[in-house]
Amino acid sequence: MKDLTQRTIRGGMAKVFSQGTNFFVRLGSLMVLARLLDPKDFGLVGMVTAVVGILNLFKDFGLSTATIQRTTISEEQISTLFWINLLAGATLGLLSAAMAPALAAFYHEPRLVLVTTVMGMGFIFNAAGVQHSALLQRQMRFTSMAIIDVISLSLSTVIGIIMAMSGYRYWALVAIGITTPLISTICAWLITAWIPGPPRRQAGTRSMLRFGGTITLHGLVAYVAFNLDKVLLGRFWGVDAIGIYGRAFQLTSMPTDNMNAAVGGVAFSALSRVQDDSKRLKNYFIKGYSLVVALTVPLTVACILFGNDIVLVVLGTKWTQAVPILRLLAPTTLIFALIYPLGWLLYSLGLVARSLKIALVLAPLMIVGYVLGLPYGPKGVAFAYSAVMTLWVVPHIAWCLHGTPVSLRDILPAVGRPLASSFAAALIALGVRLICGFGLSPLPRLILESSSLLVTYLGILLFVAGQKSLYLDLFRGLKTPSAIKKESLVSA
CA spacing 20 to 30 A to 172: which of 145, 207, 210, 246? Predict the structure, then answer.
């Protein structure tokens, strides 16, 4: 694929733009909904998502990843996978309804029966569009995917805000959860114009099912490791505790989730296409890794230094209890930026079994941390979460990179330079806040301190740390005319 580099850069920029837009849509909706709704409303829906989210891991059984990772794939195979996905989605929807009474009894909250049943419909909506989205990603049509992401999130957010303003309380959050996959699936069908054929028993999908099954099992273990904290808080500390903890967690995870969604899909597609060329694989991975880390570091620093202003501006005055939790969770923003991209590398090389082994080691460590922190409430759990992840990050990176074309030495500059730049920028931003921040209300003060942090950080990173050439290369890739032709459905 001669123009893979241009396609990757252009696709990456399209995804970055869409995820940047989505970030501000999510942030704006959070600001509005946090003022229209109470912590109890968020906590109620959080109780459902923390548990039903486990079922969400089975929504495509890893088959979208298998579709993208394969060097070649036939239309018969894709059609068969579509029907498997749809059957799985319907099964998960019915399972959600079946487990609703037990979930309500577990939390001692009868309203969860109907909420859980309705949210289960999202599995069916999502399943109907899994393979269509995978086809777009396989063909590296990231601009189309970016448009779908923005449209689906924006429309569902508008629906949720209108419902919240109309007094529907927690149902506004439920509406956002189920309309987002519905709108996304409709858009994917319209853009791909692909209609699945009948399933075939001998379509050669067994190896893909095995690949996807391993990914799904890994996701299940990882989900338990990173979400049991919310289940435990909801069970033993109530809806207010999980509502406050959940919003602080959302503020710290939103940047990393958007960054991974923006770069991850493009990087995985590109790495899968060059999985047999170790030199190009290494080059592409290092560039993507550097971009994610560099963009995440200032966000982590901002959460630690300016957590109070962030909570006041984004959530409002009734959420001040989230400030210490936000600061305690802030280090995980950077940690996940360091470890998420390693998944692209392992999956593109077919090393899904290693990902599963890593998750099986990490999960018990996280659970022990939660149990130790639980008696101290949300703050104790937040501290335990960050502490375990901080101690784990270096072994995790070393284990993932072992035996791959990328070494620990290769990624040290990608981590060290942004970190060093952030330390200097943080000192300057604190100085600006101390000198100019007195007497300002939270919003202008946050703008002032964040701007000084970002401008100083970028100046040091680009011109002192020598990262200017990396981003100039990305810019040149955008300016180069692309001769990309539309691929056929099953092209490699």
Answer: 145
First to last CA, the chain: 9
CA 445 to chain centre: 29
Asked if residues 319 and 247 have their Cβ atoms less than 8 Å apart, the reply is yes
Domain ranges within the chain, ordered by starting residue: 4-479
This prediction's pTM: 0.67
State the chain's mean pLDDT as an integer.
82
Can you tell me the distance from the alpha carbon of 115 to that of 48, in angstroms, rounded to the nearest whole number?
8
pLDDT at 158: 94
Q: Which residues contact 397 (CB under 8 A, 6 or more apart)?
A: 338, 339, 342, 408, 411
Compute the distance between CA of residue 486 and CA of residue 348 in angstroms, rounded to an integer.
Answer: 23
Alpha-carbon distance values, 297 to 95, 163, 430, 468 (Å): 40, 36, 16, 17
**In Å, what is the CA distance from 275 to each residue of 1, 70, 108, 272, 492?**
13, 10, 50, 5, 12
CA-based nearest residue to 253, from 227, 232, 285, 228: 227
CA distance 46 to 62: 25
Rounded to an integer, the average pLDDT of 222-243 is: 85
Task: Quote the longest CA-to-CA distance of the chain.
Answer: 72
CA distance 300 to 390: 13
CA-to-CA distance for 292 and 258, rounded, in angstroms?
A: 10
In the predicted structure, residue 183 carries a pLDDT above the cut 50: yes
The continuous run of DSSP H or E covering 33 comes out as helix 4-36
Selection from 407, 486, 491, 483 nearest residue 5 by Cα: 483
Q: Classify residue 487 by burial, with Cβ atoms within 10 Å: 0-12, 13-18, 19+.
A: middle
